[in-house]
Design a protein that fits this description.
With 405 residues, this protein is of the alpha/beta class. It is built from 13 helices and 15 strands. It has two domains: 145 residues, Aspartate Aminotransferase, domain 1, CATH 3.90.1150; 230 residues, Type I PLP-dependent aspartate aminotransferase-like (Major domain) (Aspartate Aminotransferase, domain 2, 3-Layer(aba) Sandwich), CATH 3.40.640.10. Strand 7, helix 9 and strand 8 form a beta-alpha-beta unit. The protein starts with a helix and ends in an 11-residue tail after the last helix.
């Protein structure tokens, strides 16, 4: 007899550190936007490994790129260079549309650590970051993350970081001065529940930073590489009112479609701030991860996924927001935040799972969707059709209503 889900969960609890709480499911395989658990139950995955599985699960082009590269040259250390690494760096810089240089890492936190160290090379130390920010869990990235519950157990953290209200230009004006090394913001705050700032925020942040000789650093770990319907959120004409040219962009999550990777890209002179010996990594820029990322970039381009992302995002946002128990919808392509009339997001996640859909609750009031960029319209329609019943099962009631819709 095969091991049951309960038995796997017990073994998980005995063998793994309890950092994530009990796993919601034990999954065995995936295909496209679908995953299956150990009991053979199928789910539509509207979380995509937290905005990671851009091409869904087991995409043939990604599988082939990884297998071919691993069968050719899998790892070499940074004493040596590989073709996929060089090509990927060039492609990322080309997509940014300005001159720049790349440092590869294995995760978002590490990309931000690299960027944090890079800002120190300006000779200044002060970072102005945003309330509600999330930049990762390593000590440096945590110092840049505002959430007290994440920070406090680990203080003291690297210092000279100040937080200002997100989306507030006047607050930035007041906080940034000639001692500021960098202004660090997410173009959209994903972990906060998909918080989208006013369209003039990033252009203003750039102006304010540059007026004081500070760098503009955008954390696009979650929003980058097609997630919002543009290659980078800061390039999306619906999200940003004027051209923004960040000095630093950090990437990770969706970049290699599920193979661990991160990138710190610095433009112009900032790309030359590190000298030999200033930073390093064993795995970063690994040929397999680079080949995976190239397959992701090629597939997004060849299958016009940016257009698909915009269309599917708009459809989901419109249809899910029709329910009166949703008080606000924030949509940037396939990064969608839904505010509930009651703080029952955990119940909604559980009810969705019972109905065969995987969604996420970044806060007690907010549901986040970040499905694979390749999600089909029929999967989108299936979730739209199931949504009212999911809210019913979760016991979410309409504002001012008696529980009836
Ligand atoms: C997820 C995330 C990170 C951290 O990435 P890890 O790969 O988990 O270290 C950093 N910044 C943003 C905006 C993120 O969404």
């Amino acid at each position: 007899m095969s091991t049951t889900a309960t038995e796997w969960s017990e073994r998980y609890a005995g063998a793994l550190m309890n950092t994530f709480g009990p796993p919601k499911l034990v999954l065995t395989r995936g295909e496209g936007a679908h995953v299956w658990d150990v009991d053979g139950r199928e789910y539509v995955d509207l979380l995509g490994g937290i905005a990671v599985n851009a091409l869904g699960h087991a995409h043939p082009r990604l599988v082939k790129a990884v297998a071919d590269q691993l069968g050719t040259l899998g790892h070499i250390s940074n004493f040596f260079a590989s073709e996929p690494q060089i090509e990927l760096a060039e492609r990322l810089v080309t997509l940014l549309g300005v001159e720049g240089r790349v440092f590869f890492t294995n995760s978002g936190a590490e990309a931000n650590e690299a960027a944090f160290k890079l800002t120190r090379r300006t000779g200044r130390t002060r970072i102005v970051a945003a309330a509600g920010s999330f930049h990762g869990r390593t000590m440096g990235a945590l110092a840049l993350t505002s959430k007290a519950a994440y920070r406090e157990p680990f203080e003291p953290l690297p210092g000279d970081v100040v937080f200002v209200p997100y989306g507030d230009v006047a607050a930035l004006e007041a906080a940034v001065d000639d001692t500021t090394a960098a202004v660090l913001v997410e173009p959209i705050q994903g972990e906060a529940g998909v918080v989208i700032p006013p369209t003039d925020y990033l252009p203003a942040a750039q102006r304010i930073a540059h007026d004081h000789g500070a760098l503009l650093w955008l954390d696009e770990v979650q929003t980058g590489i097609g997630r919002t319907g543009a290659w980078f959120a800061h390039q999306h004409p619906d999200l940003v009112s004027d051209r923004v040219v960040p000095d630093i962009v950090t990437l990770a999550k969706g970049l290699a479609g599920g193979i661990p990777i991160g990138a710190c890209i610095a433009t112009g002179g900032s790309g030359k701030l590190f000298d030999p010996g200033n930073h390093g990594t064993t795995f970063g820029g690994n040929p397999v991860a680079a080949a995976a990322a190239l397959a992701v970039l090629d597939t997004i381009r060849d299958e016009d996924l940016l257009g698909h992302v915009s269309a599917m995002g708009a459809k989901l946002a419109h249809a899910l927001g029709l329910d009166p128990r949703v008080t606000e919808v924030r949509e940037a392509g396939l990064l969608i935040g839904l505010d509930l009339a009651e703080p029952k997001s955990a119940e909604v996640v559980a009810a969705a799972q019972d109905a065969g859909f995987i969604v996420n609750a970044p806060t007690p009031e907010r549901i986040r969707l970040a499905p694979p960029l390749v999600i089909s319209e029929s999967d989108v329609d299936a979730f739209i059709n199931a949504w009212p019943a999911v809210l019913d099962s979760a016991g979410v009631t309409a504002p001012g209503g008696e529980g009836a819709r």
